[in-house]
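TL;DR need structure tokens for one chain.
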Amino acid sequence: MFEIVFGLAALVFVVFIYLLPTYVASRRQHKNLIPIFIINLFLGATGIAWVISLAWAFSSNVREDILT
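>> reply
TL;DR here they are.
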């Protein structure tokens, strides 16, 4: 039973890390959220595209009407 719980927890962690650029872009209300998500989803496994989409998610192209 422990193996199943640990396996599911590991899977959730890996999926979260894989989709981290999309999560960051979503939380920051990035204007290019959909392109970041598409690149992250389909090309993120290459590693280079994952780093690029993470850097893009942290760029300053966010909506101005958000309250911080």
